[in-house]
Amino acid sequence: MNKNPLSRRKVLGGVGLFGLAGSTAALWLGRGNTELAATHSNGAHAQQQSAPPMSHHQMNDGIGMQGSHTMMANMVQGDVTTAINGFDPMKILTDFDYGTVSKLADGRTLREYRLYASDKTIEIAPNITFPAWVYNDRVPGPTIRCTEGDRIRVTFTNGSSHPHSVHFHGMHVAAMDGVDPIEPGKQFIYEFDAEPFGLHLYHCHTVPLRRHIHKGLYGTFIIDPPKPRPPAKELVMVMNAFDTNFDNENEVYAVNTVAFHYTKHPIALKVNELVRLYLVNMTEFDPVNSLHLHANFFNVYRTGTRLESQELTDMIMLAQAERHILEFRYKYPGSYMFHAHQTEFTELGWSGMFQVS
To answer: Is the pTM here over 0.90, yes or no?
Structure first.
């Protein structure tokens, strides 16, 4: 055990927003790295590779500070291309999967979806890779969307090298709860009625839970009310983070996986346009995450299970798996920041911009 009492939090204490924090040398630098070799479903690690990356504890002893400044600069200034990951965080904002639709004998709507799990190396910041476990080749997985009362049928195929499952938040019978692991190469069909309406999520429920969630097996599950909400510009944001050296502390934070993506590529809004933000927290290793909106306030619909707002605020804090619908409008044009109000998270990637015109 490393007995150095310092942590990345102390290192970041004196660093300004977007500062070149010394602790970022904890990032697993460079492409082609592996997970201290393979992580097994029981949480054990194989022999770590030669010349392992420095931890943020080592960085606190003053080792390699110049390199860490360089990497933080690259995180802020560089970019991750869609060609590398195969998914685009900008598209994840508005990419809703309504399934294949048909009618049941009783006239109800049947929506069928396909989820498959696999092992995939993704890029979470320029030149910083992470050995993820993914649903449908992306982190977060696809945003599954339906209407309350629809019959949901999800065919899950495990193409990973580890047992996985799909646990849906909501109401369903015990047999559909997703707590039983599906072995590699096997398939299982989850089928249930969509209820209650609101903002939910799904994730792998195979032990160790923290590893299967942290490595990327989660996604958003939206059940719309029978009477649709008012028209709005709808955005999905999943707050997540990555422990790049597998010491149970995160080194990179993001929304929809890629650090600083929405800072480099601001989200376009219009003056007086109603914005509906589906905010989900899937951060592991930190007890809470948060969102602060600059120069504005939002209405909070907690878990989205009520049509009346419970709060008007500019900052909200969420535990893991907590999720809320936020609605707001901008009165004035301009560039407006949004970010976690744990400044450490902001400095390590969880920050973005709205460009209002």
So the answer is: no
